[in-house]
Write a structure and sequence with these properties.
Layout: H1 6-25, H2 30-50, H3 64-83
């Protein structure tokens, strides 16, 4: 897979995962979820926009693993807030 697609695909997958968990597992009301999901879409789009497509010496994008880890941790933090 192209390394430049890893961060956007991770953000998209985590947003879908977040929505499924909040709606079907934690049973967040639809009104609350529809209000809050707009903020989460903005957050995940921010990850995609601020991700640097600069390459290192080997030609791979810099900090891809770091960005993927940040996206996953933010997703888990949002789920934890609703679970409390």
């Amino acid at each position: 897979m192209n390394d430049k697609l890893v961060v956007p695909l991770t953000a998209a997958a985590c947003l879908i995962f977040l929505t499924v968990v909040l709606k079907n597992i934690l049973l967040v009301p639809a009104e609350t979820l529809s209000r809050d999901i707009i903020l989460y879409i903005i957050i995940y789009m921010g990850f995609i926009v601020t991700y640097s497509f600069e390459n290192d010496e080997s030609g791979k994008p810099k900090y891809t693993r770091l960005w993927v880890l940040i996206i996953i941790l933010v997703t888990l933090a949002i789920i934890a807030v609703y679970a409390i």
